[in-house]
Amino acid sequence: IIGFVGLVIPHFMRLLVGTDHRILLIASYLSGAAFLVLCDTLARTIIAPMELPVGVVTGIIGGTLFVYALSRRPTHSFR
Q: Does pTM top 0.85 for this prediction?
């Protein structure tokens, strides 16, 4: 499940920074790393004496953000 970060984060960054690949690559690297560090920190501290698998946290946060992004996407009618 951690691998989905490499698929989803660049698409979110494209929405935020545009399609210029010079900026998009750097933004994707940094935001993907920051996202995994945040999820790992949460996984270690949510239930303090035990550790939650980081894949569970990335799945919950990433799934929620993905559904939100899909709901905010403008719909186009095909004719």
A: no
